[in-house]
Amino acid sequence: MNTVLSTFPLGFPWQTQDPFLFAVYHLDHYPKGNGEMGPDPKLLEGRNIGNDFTIKDGWRMYHGSTIPGFPYHPHRGFETITIVNKGFCDHSDSLGAAGRFGEGDVQWMTAGRGVQHSEMFPLLKDDSENPLELFQIWLNLPKADKFVDPHFKMLWHEDIPIIEEENAKIKVIAGNFKGNQANEPAPNSWAAKGENDVAVWNIHVDANTEFTLPKASTEVTRTLYFYEGSEIYFGVKKVNPNFGVVLDGLQDTTFKVGNKQAHLLMLQGKPIGEPVAKYGPFVMNTEEEIQQAMDEYRVTQFGGWPWPYPDNVHEKEKGRFAKYPDGKLVDK
């Protein structure tokens, strides 16, 4: 049977299906650092600083002014899953939590009733380039959990299951791949309930081989994002890189890989099936709730900002670490 329901080009951000809200892929070939964790100021000339989303010389500053990244901004009503395959991300938030993670680490943050955070990409190496490869995925929260307490969790790359098959490598960030269970997600996550069959897998398949995605255990939405490679084939149907593939999750899906290794991300989950109202970083069920979130943020700032700068970064010499809201410190 044909398991491919549709295909679509990958934009910025990527198209998603319930229970996912948003997915984006950042690939930036950042230059050498200037000693202060940013690029040489001369390289910033000609950029729309503060809103630099156009790739120039292979990289972008995003909303950063001296260091690339996203200075403080609020979230309410959903979760972020941030996968950093290359480079580093410096996290700071209104709970007082902080961290530096990268080189395969994953951060899982529940915004719940409201949190501010910043995500900056420090250029730590001054003698060589600082490539960054990062996915950020927004996973919705059902109405019953929109106002849970914010939660910050690290999934360190040393602890994430990576399944090595004869011709493929599968990083299991969420869900279960052939009996290999991912680490526990944040406690109030839609992914925390096994019956929702949420899966986030980063898949790498060798050239000129076949790979089979096992079917889901329940009715789910399933999207495969083909972000790097030459081409893949579902039977006679050819799919080029930078395309997404909507699949029937109740069937095993086999595809063949062309003459370059294929790099893919798969998002899967049982739909929440509730109304979605979105405005920027707020995701609720009604427009009235969005207005309430905006009004509350104006008054409370979701706890304020305990850091010295909107684009806060940590000491350059600091390694990978996480500081949790209760003060617990983990150094990696």
Automatic annotation (TrEMBL):
Annotated ranges, domain Pirin N-terminal: 62-139
Pfam families in UniProt: Pirin, Pirin_C
Source superkingdom: Bacteria
Residue span, Pirin C-terminal domain: 201-303
Family per record: Belongs to the pirin family.
UniProt name for this protein: Pirin family protein
Source organism (scientific name): Croceitalea rosinachiae
